[in-house]
Write a structure and sequence with these properties.
Distance between the termini: 46 Å
Helix content: 25-40%
Oligomer: single chain
Radius of gyration: 18 Å
Strand content: 15-25%
Largest sheet: 5 strands, parallel
Order of helices and strands: EHEHEHEHEHEEEEHEHHEE
């Protein structure tokens, strides 16, 4: 099996050195660049299996970089973990809404970061092996083999995590899931994430579903379920 390529977009040389040292025992190939522009240039011609992206970068900041990454068709399924000192709720929500799969606030534990990279790589390895399947509930339709979703005749523009959430709900209608069960289903067991992160992702999905958004029902004190009748 080829080594997984981890693209690290980080301008701080001390952090680059820390990551290089802490990840040296992993069977990964590390590609380290200092600017978003360099990272995007790499992705245009090379493959990455996971991206660690700082927000506060010289030139193009990380939020603009992730928007560019998600606009590249061949990068849509690459897990992006934002690593930054900006830890306010508004910063985290912005990063997640732009398509980040995870958000790690500095200073962070290298061991925790490595665990999150492993989880991202595991999701990426598992996704191509999903059986060809189509799910439909009312006007909502999802085709996993083509990685497309529709509401009526309109194609939905979903980030990778939103697509995984919708697939999970459509394939398990009327079942109540806790937040932990939802995150385990789409990202793997023991994935470190906050309840707030799950709520933000579901809020974003509801908005994109429009009139069908209320089919994702909040079960107070428990979690969420997908109702088959709108």
């Amino acid at each position: 099996m080829d080594k997984a390529v981890i693209l690290i977009i980080e301008d701080d040389p001390e952090i680059q050195e820390l990551l290089s040292h802490s990840m040296s025992r992993e069977n990964w190939k590390l590609v380290q660049v200092k600017t978003g522009e360099e990272g995007l240039k790499f992705l245009k011609s090379k493959k990455a299996n996971c991206i660690l992206l700082d927000i506060m970068l010289p030139g193009m900041d990380g939020l603009k970089v992730i928007k560019k990454i998600k606009e590249m068709d061949h990068c849509a399924g690459i897990p992006v973990i934002m690593t930054t000192a900006k830890g306010e709720d508004s910063d985290i929500i912005t990063g997640l809404e732009l398509g980040a799969d995870d958000y790690v606030v500095k200073p962070y534990s290298p061991k925790v970061l490595i665990a999150r990279v492993r989880a991202g790589l595991r999701r990426q390895e598992e996704s191509p092996n999903v059986n060809v399947s189509v799910w439909q509930q009312g006007e909502l339709k999802l085709d996993a083999s083509r990685h497309v979703a529709f509401y009526g005749d309109q194609q939905l523009e979903l980030f990778a995590t939103e697509f995984a959430l919708l697939k999970h709900f459509l394939s398990n209608p009327e079942i109540v899931f806790s937040r932990n069960q939802i995150i385990a289903a789409i990202r793997g067991p023991d994935y470190p994430v906050t309840d707030r992160s799950v709520d933000v992702q579901i809020l974003g999905l509801r908005k994109k579903l429009g009139k069908a958004g209320d089919m994702i029902e909040t079960i107070r004190g428990v979690g969420y379920r997908f109702r088959t009748e709108n």
